Amino acid sequence: MIKKVGGTEIKARHRASCHCGAVVLELDLPDGIVDPRRCDCSICRRKGAIVASVPLAGITIIEGEDVLTRYEFNTHTARHYFCSRCGIYTHHQRRSNPDQYGYNVGCLEGVNPFDLGSVPTNDGVNHPADRS
Ligand SMILES: [Zn+2]
Predict the structure, then answer these.
(1) How far is the CA of 108 from the centre of ligand 1 (A)?
(2) Centre of ligand 1 from the C-alpha of residue 128, in Å
(3) Residue range 54-60: average pLDDT?
(4) Is the pTM of this model over 0.90?
(5) Cβ count near 48 (within 10 Å)
(6) Phi, psi of 16 (to 5 degrees)
(7) 122 — pLDDT class (breaks 50, 70, 90)
(8) Where are the beta strands (DSSP E) in the chain?
(9) Which terminus of the chain has fewer Cβ atoms in its 10 Å neighbourhood, N or C?
(10) Distance from the CA of 87 to the center of ligand 1, in angstroms?
């Protein structure tokens, strides 16, 4: 449970935004930043974001629902959302746990993800949903 990053307190309802500001989300983070990690799957290795977890009910789109674009691939289970204007990944519905969103820690207001130090890397090459 991470309640403070650098000088920024993580609020119980914390705002997040894309780079251009068209997309604004409100995240329910009563336990702070939960389970931040990187992943080496084919999409995460390209986007390079540190991703943390919230339940599906934990994200409210405040602005820019019309600007958010969805990308799916492979099994089309995971839904990856990004801003169609600036291209920034904001959040995705997980394939490994469809009851959760992963979200881009770098989109959290006032948070520099580099202040988290090192975070675990998820083995996305051998996706949990593909393991027997
Ligand atoms: Zn944007």
Answers:
(1) 14
(2) 31
(3) 97
(4) yes
(5) 10
(6) -140, 150
(7) confident
(8) 4-5, 8-9, 13-17, 24-28, 38-39, 51-55, 59-63, 68-71, 79-83, 89-93, 100-104, 121-122
(9) C
(10) 6
